[in-house]
Amino acid sequence: MKIVVSSGKRKTAIARATIREGTGRVYINKTPLENYMPLMARQIIEEPLLIASDDLTSKIDIRINVRGGGTMGQAQASRIAVARGLVDYTKSADLRQHFVEYDRTLMAGDSRRKEKKKFGGPGARARKQKSYR
Questions:
Q1: CATH value at residue 48
Q2: In sequence order, what are the beta bridge partners of 62?
C-alpha cells in the first residue's frame, strides 16, 4: 500500500495531507469535504482535485490535518498540501505542470506574512498625525 504525506503553509496555518489508496474520500480534520464549511473554503480545497483526473481522485483517500490561522488560511494551506501530495503520489511532471499553469501558488506557496506593528502608531505603517498649529 502506497502512502504519501505532504504539507502546505499559508500565513500561520499548517496543513498535513496523507494520501493513500482508497475510494475517493477526502477528510479535513475528520470532517468529510462535503460537510466542510464555509463553501468558499471547500471550493478552494477542491481545486487541485478538479484539475487532476477523475480516475486518479476516485482511487485515493485524502486525510488533511490543519492547525493555526483562520478559515481561509487553513483552506489555502490544505489546497497546497493536496496538490503537492498528488504530484508526489503520481510522480507526474505533467500533473505538476498543469498545477503551475493553473495557479503557481498550488506548488510554490505564498510567502507573504503580516508586517509587525511598530511603536508610535496604531499599526505597522500608520503613525500619529501632527498639525503644528
A1: 3.30.230.10
A2: 19, 26
